[in-house]
Amino acid sequence: MEPTEHIHETKTRLIEQISVMLGGRAAESLVFSEMTTGASDDIAKATEVARTMVVEFGMSELGPINLDGEKRRYFEQSTVSQEMAAKIDEQVKRITDAAYKRAASVLLKLRKKLDLLASELLIKETIESEEFQRLIGPKPALLPAKA
């Protein structure tokens, strides 16, 4: 099954994507009770999606407002006050924390399947989507995410 590209994303789908991005860190915590640097790129991407939701798409408690305007060049100063920047950071953290908790909850619920998949990956290193679905099963319908 090929991934589909969406022109317009819903808040629910974006939060689901952030949860997936934070799944590696959640798995590290669940399995090893430890963190590594391995999830750093996914964390950066998840944070960027959450920030974009807040500052460009108006998908936070700050309301339907674009706080970023045109993409600024690195030498331009932001027009956002320190107070608003703190509120933006708070909203980004709220979104990423909720997505992380969701990822951790799903992994905890599916721990046996996680262990099965990890064992298979230790043997084969990579698996195709058909084998992944055979091991894990089809993707269940998820409840809408809350942030």
Could you describe the 3D structure shown?
- The chain starts with 10 loop residues before the first helix and ends in an 11-residue tail after the last helix.
- Helices cover 59% and strands 0% of the residues.
- α3 crosses α4.
- The model has no long low-confidence stretch (mean pLDDT 86).
- It has helices spanning 11-21, 23-32, 40-55, 82-109, 111-124, 129-136.
- The chain is mainly α and 147 residues long.
- It has a domain at 11-70 and 77-110: Methane Monooxygenase Hydroxylase, Chain G, domain 1.
Overview features:
147 residues; mainly alpha; Methane Monooxygenase Hydroxylase, Chain G, domain 1; 6 helices; 0% strand
Describe how the helices and strands are arranged.
Elements: H1 11-21, H2 23-32, H3 40-55, H4 82-109, H5 111-124, H6 129-136
Helix pairs in contact: 1-3, 1-4, 2-4, 3-4
